[in-house]
């Protein structure tokens, strides 16, 4: 694979290859000297047409830890605000010999356009396009889940899997590229996904996605979940009223203090609470939930660097998807699980 544009098209082998490589990268980030020479002399451009804190910093840290040169380009304050097109911007980057372009754009499909255009030669990584996809976020979420469950089973996470885990993704699914990328990836990895949202915040055609759909967060929790991923209410993409009031939203679909206590009452002692950030505290998630020991919010941010190092490294070394660890991974995992269970 030359580009990382979506998880929809990512094979199980390539996904596991990224997760396993990210484990190796995590070992580097835990060292005192957090740097590898792997991408010395290569140039990574962060091309951000939309606001970002975590993702941009994370890609920058990832590229620098691999010794690449990094150019950060934010659309605000650039010639884009003077009306320069994506094509002209891309060709400017090409003239600077970019090896990889990490792009975040408000329009769904912009990274694909860049990859297909022939305007540039670089590898393209989608860092979030409109409401479409955010593949590295889903990969870092899967990495976080995999680490959590392998630690619980007392096995190493490399090669282990998350098949059969019950994941609820709750909130503003309609506007969420994180939800979409997670549904495809988690399905590929064999997890069972339930989307939980008010009907107004579910996209048309959701019934064709490989997941269940529920309108009731409490029922979903009661059925048993291993992870609850809360989505940000994306006010900036809402041009109409999608729910009666913030109070009503947080009461029905927010992960509030009562639901946090409910996990204990339901005996779900290992269930984790995830959020990609930025959080609207008090709306989709309460502070007590966000800061509780169940929360993986900061772990997700930390893991993001390792996963992005893996993606950059594999794409720029030309190895992504070429030598997938085959399906032996699954066989091995199941035997691991049986061992851990017995
Ligand atoms: C997400 C995004 O930008 O899509 N955030 C992120 O990348 N950490 C989710 C969001 O903005 O709600």
TrEMBL record:
Q: Which residues bind carbamoyl phosphate?
A: 54-55, 104, 134, 137, 277-278
Q: Is Cell wall biogenesis/degradation tagged as a keyword?
A: no
Reaction catalysed? carbamoyl phosphate + L-aspartate = N-carbamoyl-L-aspartate + phosphate + H(+)
State where L-aspartate binds.
82, 177, 232
- The Aspartate/ornithine carbamoyltransferase Asp/Orn-binding domain sits at 164-315
Its annotated pathway reads: Pyrimidine metabolism; UMP biosynthesis via de novo pathway; (S)-dihydroorotate from bicarbonate: step 2/3
- Which Pfam families does the record cross-reference, listed alphabetically? OTCace (PF00185), OTCace_N (PF02729)
* Domain Aspartate/ornithine carbamoyltransferase carbamoyl-P binding: from-to ranges: 2-146
Query: Which Gene3D superfamilies does the record associate with it?
Result: Aspartate/ornithine carbamoyltransferase
- Return the InterPro entries for the record: Asp/Orn_carbamoyltranf_P-bd, Asp/Orn_carbamoylTrfase, Asp/Orn_carbamoylTrfase_sf, Asp_carbamoyltransf, Asp_carbamoyltransf_Asp/Orn-bd
Q: What is its EC number?
A: 2.1.3.2
Annotated region (Disordered) at 323-342
Keyword field contains Transferase: yes
Coiled coil stretches, renumbered:
none
Q: Which GO terms describe its molecular function?
A: aspartate carbamoyltransferase activity
- Keywords from the UniProt entry: Pyrimidine biosynthesis, Transferase
Matching PANTHER family = ASPARTATE CARBAMOYLTRANSFERASE, ORNITHINE CARBAMOYLTRANSFERASE, MITOCHONDRIAL
Q: Which family does the UniProt entry place this protein in? A: Belongs to the aspartate/ornithine carbamoyltransferase superfamily. ATCase family.
| Quaternary context | Heterododecamer (2C3:3R2) of six catalytic PyrB chains organized as two trimers (C3), and six regulatory PyrI chains organized as three dimers (R2).
**Entry function:** Catalyzes the condensation of carbamoyl phosphate and aspartate to form carbamoyl aspartate and inorganic phosphate, the committed step in the de novo pyrimidine nucleotide biosynthesis pathway.
Name this protein carries in UniProt: Aspartate carbamoyltransferase
Task: Name the lineage.
Answer: Bacteria, Bacillati, Actinomycetota, Actinomycetes, Micrococcales
């Amino acid at each position: 694979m030359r580009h990382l544009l979506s998880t929809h098209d990512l094979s199980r082998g390539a996904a596991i290859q990224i997760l396993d490589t990210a484990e190796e990268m995590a070992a580097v980030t835990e060292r005192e000297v957090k740097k590898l020479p792997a991408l010395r002399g290569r140039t990574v451009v962060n091309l951000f047409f939309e606001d970002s804190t975590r993702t941009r910093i994370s890609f920058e840290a990832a590229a620098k830890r691999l010794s690449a040169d990094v150019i950060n380009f934010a659309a605000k304050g650039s010639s884009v605000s003077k009306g320069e097109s994506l094509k002209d911007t891309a060709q400017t980057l090409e003239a600077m010999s970019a090896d990889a372009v990490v792009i975040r754009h408000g329009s769904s499909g912009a990274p694909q356009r860049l990859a297909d255009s022939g305007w540039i030669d670089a590898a393209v990584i989608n860092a979030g396009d409109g409401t479409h996809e955010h593949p590295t976020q889903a990969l870092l979420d899967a990495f976080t889940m995999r680490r959590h469950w392998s630690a619980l089973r007392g096995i190493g996470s490399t090669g282990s899997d998350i098949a059969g885990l019950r994941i609820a993704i709750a909130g503003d699914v309609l506007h969420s590229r994180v939800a979409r990328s997670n549904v495809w990836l988690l399905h590929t990895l064999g997890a069972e996904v339930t989307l939980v949202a008010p009907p107004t915040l579910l996209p048309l055609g959701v019934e064709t996605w490989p997941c269940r759909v529920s309108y009731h967060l409490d029922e979903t929790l009661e059925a048993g979940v291993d992870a609850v991923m809360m989505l940000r209410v994306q006010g900036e993409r809402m041009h109409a009223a999608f729910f009666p009031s913030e109070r009503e939203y947080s009461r029905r679909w927010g992960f509030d203090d009562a639901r946090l206590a409910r996990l204990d009452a339901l005996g779900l002692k290992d269930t984790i609470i995830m959020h990609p950030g930025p959080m609207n505290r008090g709306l989709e998630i309460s502070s007590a939930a966000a800061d509780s020991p169940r929360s993986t919010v900061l772990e997700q941010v930390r893991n993001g660097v390792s996963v992005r190092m893996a993606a950059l490294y594999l794409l720029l070394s030309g190895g992504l998807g070429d030598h997938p660890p085959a399906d032996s991974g699954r066989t091995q995992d199941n035997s691991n699980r049986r061992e851990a269970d017995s």
